[in-house]
Amino acid sequence: MHPRIVQLSDFHVRGDGKLSFQKADTITLLHQTVGYFAGQKDYQLPDHFVITGDLVDGGTPQGYAILKEALDQLPRPWYVVPGNHDKRANMVEILGPAAPVQSDISPYICYTIESNPIRVIVADTSIPGCHWGGLSHDVATWLDAKLSEDLDRPTIVFTHHVPFVTGLPAMDEGFGQADSFAAILRRHNNLRLCCGHTHTPITTLWQGILCVSAPSVAMQMEVDFRAKSDLTPQEAADFKGGGDRFFLGNPAYLLHDLQDARVNTHYIPIPVGADYSGPWPFKYYEGEKS
Question: Which helix (H) or strand (E) is 245 found in, with range?
Fold first, then answer.
């Protein structure tokens, strides 16, 4: 079989049993997704799974315990990337081998997976307390060194945040040290950047780098390019502009498949009978912040 990796993203599991953003039954969606892969034949399965962040709303220990119990039922190894809703310390403590942070870069959750012909490099772009992301000096230095170890092997760099402008105004909050990030990635000869965060698949060429963002397991983003200034007063009271609402759609994922020393990426939905109600705002419960 050709080497392949499944990318899942944005589970938004809650540890308290409530619906995520008051609408999404993320625990049920988590179990439906795991059941889908558990029912696949061996030839359909990837070598491993990479989950690109926003695993647990609020990053609670209870949420990670629920997530781990479910994902341990996957038929192949799984690995995680931190997102803006996650808590690094809880991820490392509870998810263990799925977040094999390397001692030279701790507390950032950065590591490589070398067991596959597709080299995987996980880069932590999360900034505690912030919705947006960026590349810290320490992570930039670490990433540059790791990429330099093998400049020709097919490589995927996985992050949660996208560094490019999506056109969805509520999501386009900027990315710290974006130009430095691009300069590091451009030194590699056979690389793509695969991200989460957007809740909708986007493919683009950013500063000469092929970038792909994944759909969500939990909530599918409404593609709306209006800025807050384009909204009526009634609309502006409910959401921040395009990129701030979602549909309750089927979970979906990306399959990265190695062919002729290059990676093809496939978008695949998981048919669970979602009703696609919405769009609903990303609205917290009263008193919540994240």
Answer: strand 245-247
- The two structure tokens encoding residue 115: 């067991």
How many C-beta atoms surround the C-beta of residue 289 within 10 A? 6
* Residue 89, helix vs strand vs coil: helix
pLDDT at 290 over 70: no
Residue 53 lies in a domain: yes
Residue 39 is assigned to a structural domain of this protein:
yes
Can you tell me whether residue 140 is helix, strand or coil?
A: helix
Locate 103 and state its tokens.
């001692």
* Residue 64 and residue 55 in contact, taking contact as beta carbons nearer than 8 Å: yes
Nearest Cα residue to 118 out of 261, 6, 1: 261
Are 158 and 50 in contact, with CB atoms under 8 Å apart?
Answer: yes
**Global confidence as pTM:** 0.96
Check: CB of residue 162 under 8 Å from CB of residue 175: yes
Closest CA to 37 of 218, 252, 265, 219: 252
| Domain-embedded: residue 67 | yes
